[in-house]
């Protein structure tokens, strides 16, 4: 091989000028671009800094430790206007964004898969309903949908004094959904332990069942056993504990107060509107991604599965979807990122997400526009990169399954 | 909101790049060069800043911007109004998007000293109040324990609210919205028990309720809200123009100079009127304008009292009494600094 190379290189025309070497040129242009971009950013940075100095706007991140002085409607961590700082307000907003995005992603995935598969159904009605859903929801701007859910659907709910009683301590009114708040006694640990045992047991059983199936071909009712272990074990523990000693879980029930229901747990209508809006909107896109993925699996696969005697449901679950997943995952990742970023539209309906709390109130009270904007952009970038990273890992695992 | 983030970031960067070299002292020069004034206005508050269906802006704060335009160009129409939500207003001013912010903003020490702003005048003395539905049977803000309250985010209102409920050891649930429009709609739809903003704003917003008589404004005023125009810190000449435009309007009212009689008053022997209307002294030139700057303001807009009556006073739909906003000679707080 070496000798061939030498021959070729000797046969090639004499080397042209250094300037015409494509490799050198490529490196040169890249370097030029990097220098230019760096210079532009440096200039923008120093200019902004100078202008801030001239305008006497304090800069730096010290403001994060200043007392915030305003309240937030939904706080997942302890927060009070009196004692908490702008940094705490940032965390509250961040958590609210993460919560609505995470729940939204789960719901949108489930709904999207159902609609996507329904659109390919041989049942004319089911397919058309799914089609109408997709075309309707993905063509209306999300902001309008959020306002629709918030103003038109949740707005007309009755006032607190006429709350809809749904039984078992559940109430619904214009201020949100109220439900009993569980209060845990110390021996709740036993239930958690039961849950852990249940999960470990279920995982072990699934492994064992799969190995048995591969060896003997016998199928076990994996779903039923999993349900029994994960759900049944803690419930049995709870009942036993309640009978033997005191009930480890008691409930704080919502009661009618002067203005609103007191106590219990409240789910804000802003949260519900945002969650429903994001879920239904993103699900329409996911449905299309799923449909494309399923159509990408060649028809021969379905026919082969059918000839093996698999039922249509089994064909879908065991043959089609696993292969479709390889096509689905990359665009699905984009939809997850979109959902997270779109959650910032919360500002229009008063849900205290990161943009509303941090880019809205905190920026306005402190005037630290550059710092606040940089932090916010950093947060969205980080969320996106992390989501993308995990989806890529998942994608790689799915890809290896290919045989 | 991705777009908003991107545009703000880009705006900040662009502002950083564009103002390079150009002196920060140049607002008047840039306004003259553009040929119009850009004025940060409310997104819509009756009596203070509200565009009608044809896009004609009216209001007390709007009149003030027109007065500045009249002083500079002798033409009150050379203003472009940029509607700004409370949470965006100071950023817009800092970044140079507007030349002056005339948008019922409360003067506070932190805003004056830490936001890179200056507040040259107070054109409305206000205080924060609460509005509730009559059928709730509440007659005092002290009875609002446990209520949910709608407010506009990024305002002093939001901070006073927290202070007031903490001081009175009461609980509440805050629901904050970006614009006054969204805030009031949410209250009107029954999302909140109470709506809080400056008292003037309560009267203005009540007019938009589906049935204004169903709502009452509670008697408590829980804060001082001196509202006034703001400019960027560091441009002293521009701040002077804004400050003296307002004082010219106040002095005109005190001296009885009105839109109708300003031409006759030009021949007045009263030295104070002479200095005001530019027939004596060079006060206009001292702030970079012509000596008849105040004459132009009064000719086009009228004095403070006229603007007040027209927009928020007894002659308007709002029917707000002069109260603290009467001249000092009539027991109010408005005191025109002497032109001499």
From TrEMBL, chain A:
Chief location category: membrane
Domain ABC transmembrane type-1: 94-391
Domain of life: Bacteria
A Gene Ontology biological process term: amino acid transport
Transmembrane regions: 24-42, 89-118, 130-152, 183-205, 226-251, 271-290, 345-363, 369-394
Keywords: Amino-acid transport, Cell membrane, Membrane, Transmembrane, Transmembrane helix, Transport
A GO CC term assigned to this protein in UniProt: ATP-binding cassette (ABC) transporter complex
Keyword Ubl conjugation: no
Topology term for the membrane: Multi-pass membrane protein
Pfam families reported in the protein's UniProt record: BPD_transp_1
Localization per record: Cell inner membrane; Cell membrane
Keyword Transport set for record: yes
Gene Ontology MF terms in the entry: transmembrane transporter activity
Family: Belongs to the binding-protein-dependent transport system permease family. HisMQ subfamily.
Name of the featured protein: ABC transporter permease subunit
Lineage of the organism: Bacteria, Pseudomonadati, Pseudomonadota, Alphaproteobacteria, Hyphomicrobiales
Automatic annotation (TrEMBL), chain B:
Signal peptide: 1-24
Top-rank lineage group of the source organism: Bacteria
Record keywords: Signal, Transport
Ranges of residues in domain Solute-binding protein family 3/N-terminal: 36-265
PROSITE patterns, alphabetized: SBP_BACTERIAL_3 (PS01039)
Pfam family for this entry, one: SBP_bac_3
GO terms under biological process: amino acid transport
Similarity annotation: Belongs to the bacterial solute-binding protein 3 family.
The name this protein goes by in its record: Transporter substrate-binding domain-containing protein
Organism: Microvirga thermotolerans
